[in-house]
Each structure stands twice: as structure tokens, then as C-alpha cells.
Amino acid sequence: MEKEQPSQCEHLARIILSAEEIKNRVEVIAKNISDHYRAQEKTGLVVVGILRGAVIFMSDLIRQISLPLTIDFMAISSYGGSTTTSGAVRILKDISESIEGQHVLVVEDIVDTGLTLNNLLDVLHARKPQSLAVCALLNKPSRRKVEIQVDYCGFEIPDEFVVGYGLDYAGHYRHLPYIGVLKPEIYR
Ligand code: IMP
């Protein structure tokens, strides 16, 4: 029997990435990560997900990575109800284990201005991991305010506010299996 498609959320102007496109891309990124760490003989990978936006992406990603790994999470302050960032990072929840001497892969939902990740990477660098890399599902390079190296990137998207597949507006829409542009009248 054919699987029923989730109906399009009426608050979206359009869908930009279907569940199928995301799934295919996640498989490719996971393979790239597996190949890289295996080739470099980097063992003991710690995947750090940034709550809450990266949860869905990370759970799909790690199930496709063919290496031994552990997971941890951090929560940092982000947008709340608005759609622009201040860049100030406040740690709301810290990782549970030390990352000193570990190979750390930070998993983010989206890199926009880069300010959040820039601050977060400074915090993690200070804890002396053996290596520190970034994997982001989405990248809005046109909005960048600080230079950030995104080692693994799912998709580059234009400067529009998107939701779904973990990304929210005021806490909503994270459960949508696809990614779409939120109608501006929803947040204006
Ligand atoms: P940055 O500091 O400007 O790079 O902001 C990164 C954070 O802002 C992300 O982790 C998201 O939580 C949030 N964000 C940026 N753009 C969007 C978007 O289009 N939709 C939903 N959240 C976004």
C-alpha cells in the first residue's frame, strides 16, 4: 500500500526540501563523515547535537554513520520568538562528558550569521578536543557575519526563514518531515 504523504502545512509559502531529498542527502553526508574519519584513523567520535533544532537531523545522520561513536547534547540560547539572532551565546545545557582529546563533530540545524556557532566553537576549543568539525544541515552563506568553516553541509539555501525537520518558529513546525519557507505574515 502506498504511504500517505503528510499534507502541506498551511503556514508555509512553499516546500524547498522534500523528505526524500533530505533523506538522500543525509545518507551522502554520513558516508562522507564515515569515510573521512576512517581514512584519518580518527577513532572515538563524539557527536554533539545542538538542541533543539538539530535533533531530527542528528538522529537520522548518526544511524547512517558506520563508525563507533557516542552522542552528547548542548542547548544554547537562540531566536525565541523573533527571526534575527543577537549572536550572544548562553549555555542552557552543557555536554555531559569531557571532550578533551576526543574527535568532536558538532551537528547544527542551520548556520545563518554564524555568530552562534562561532561562539560555541570557541567554548568547545577551550576544552581541548583532539579535533573539532562542524556538520550543518542548512547553510545561508549570504547572511554570514563571521567566517565559519562548515566541514559537512547538507544544503545551501537562500535568505528566507525556513521551518521543518527540526527547525522551528516559536517552538512550532519542528515535526514536519520536509523543510519549507514560512509565510512572512506568520512572523511579521
Ligand atoms: P546564527 O547565529 O545567525 O548562525 O543562527 C543560528 C541559529 O538561528 C540556528 O541554530 C537556528 O536555531 C536559528 N535560525 C537561523 N535561521 C533560521 C531559519 O531560517 N529557521 C529557523 N531557525 C533559524
What does this structure look like?
By secondary structure, this protein is of the alpha/beta class. The protein has 4 helices and 9 strands, in the order βαβαβββαββββα. It has helices spanning 19-39, 55-62, 115-125, 184-187, and strands spanning 12-17, 45-51, 69-76, 91-93, 103-111, 131-139, 152-156, 162-163, 179-182. The strands form 2 sheets. The protein has a 6-stranded mixed beta sheet, with helices on both faces. Strands 1-9-8 form a 3-stranded antiparallel beta sheet. α1 (19-39) packs across α2. It is globular and about 45 Å long. The model has no long low-confidence stretch (mean pLDDT 91). The structure holds inosinic acid. Residues 53, 78-79, 85, 87, 108-117, 161-163, 167 line the site of inosinic acid.
The structure class reads alpha/beta
Query: What strand order characterises the main sheet?
Result: 4-3-2-5-6-7
Query: Count of helical segments?
Result: 4
Mean pLDDT: 91
Small molecules in complex: inosinic acid
* Form type: globular
Gap between N and C termini, in Å? Answer: 42 Å
Estimated share of beta-strand residues: 25-35%
- DSSP summary, beta strand count: 9
Q: How helix-rich are the residues, as a percent range? A: 10-25%
Taking pLDDT < 50 over at least 5 consecutive residues as the criterion, the unreliable ranges are: none
Order of helices and strands: EHEHEEEHEEEEH
Task: Describe the sheet with the most strands.
Answer: 6 strands, mixed
How much is the radius of gyration in Å? 16 Å
